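To assess whether ligand presence alters the predicted conformation, the chain was also submitted together with zinc ion. Input:
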Amino acid sequence: MTQISVKFLGSGDAFGSGGRLQTCIYVQSEFAKFLIDCGASSLIAMKQCGVSLLDVETILITHLHGDHFGGIPFFILDSQLISRRTDPLIIAGPPGLEERIRNAMEVMFPGSSKVKQKFEITYRELPEREPAAIGELRVTGMQVVHGSGAPSYALRVEGAGKTIVYTGDTEWTDRLIEIARGADLFIAEAYYYNKKMENHLNYQTLMERRHELQCKQIVLTHMSDDMLGRLDRLELESAADGKEIVLP
Ligand SMILES: [Zn+2]
Ligand SMILES: [Zn+2]
């Protein structure tokens, strides 16, 4: 069976806590190379880690907040002007994805949303809970509890015999139990240590629910200063910019 590498190019929150870059997870195997989320700082993250934009076949997006999708306008512009991409690019995520990306491009680089690229971009807006075949991957979005002006998803990505789940941003919902089931890697946001707030998860809740999450490995990400100050006291593994996890 093929190895899968999961590299956290960006493991931070929206606010640069701890000097970390925004969410950008690069997954590569013999069969597929893709990003999960592409926060605004993702091009910096990719170039720091030596990941070529040309290697990325697909960008999967959990939800339409800038720290998760805001890097896409830069990705598209770089692909057109700098890396001179010719291979097709698939961008998949929740309903509303294409319009929001076009709007973001137009706000940041007026006229750019109307440029015809030299490569094909296919937008795939995933209906909730319906597994979609994207190349060699099977991708399922499940709506979680996080206001973003469109459905916010946790994503389950199956391919090469492995399953990776990422919560995206969300407060606790029992849907996480469902989407985590059988995952090899469950990437969970853990914004605060024990402070309960709307829209975000905290570490204590995850620990209380740990036994219900039937997955092999949990890695925490998207942490605030409150969490980053306690990294040495956590019982769960945490992400860091540049950290790689290999699924055998
Ligand atoms: Zn968010
Ligand atoms: Zn976020």
